[in-house]
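Lab notebook, page 48
Experiment: co-folding of the full assembly
Goal: obtain a model of how the components sit together before planning crosslinking
Operator: M.T.
Materials (sequences as entered):
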Amino acid sequence: GAGVSQSPSNKVTEKGKDVELRCDPISGHTALYWYRQRLGQGLEFLIYFQGNSAPDKSGLPSDRFSAERTGESVSTLTIQRTQQEDSAVYLCASSLLERVTSYNEQFFGPGTRLTVL
Amino acid sequence: SQKIEQNSEALNIQEGKTATLTCNYTNYSPAYLQWYRQDPGRGPVFLLLIRENEKEKRKERLKVTFDTTLKQSLFHITASQPADSATYLCALPSGGSYIPTFGRGTSLIVHP
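Observation: model returned without errors.
Model output:
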């Protein structure tokens, strides 16, 4: 079976433009997470979905960031009016359940490397 | 909120030796702690989860310990191989949520 996929793998954009990042989770995984990883830094939690709803949006850095999920499947992270500080790798992960139990680990995609010029 | 500390300096060891990585946290003991491996240009890959009532967990050449008194987890790789070279991240829930917060990771370099 396929793992988590993300597209595009790389995105270069100009400051002020909007970008959309896509995540296809593992089929049947209820929970979906978005993280940001700046160069040499740890993972910064952005948002997670339980089904199609997002109970925790506390990690979104600003109102320029938004995300949605449809059909308990694909998710899109949108960044409006991109800034240079948005440059990072954006990682998506999915897990079978929204809560961590014995072996309910997160499965990560390869990430989208976003560069804002 | 929970602060997670992992050694930012790379750990260099010789092939065949045991690598030991440390993860310290500052506040309340979490319900669980996870270890992930991340290779350059890739997303993290889950390795092990240890719960608060477990002292030790093993998987093949990997061993994780969890000391809630010291607020510390140790991650051991025995008989290390150059292929074990990667960044290792620890993660634990914080802020009353089950969503894991990740440390910055420690880079392990195993020399042949």
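Interpretation: The two ends of chain B are 41 Å apart (CA to CA).
Next step: discuss with group before ordering constructs.
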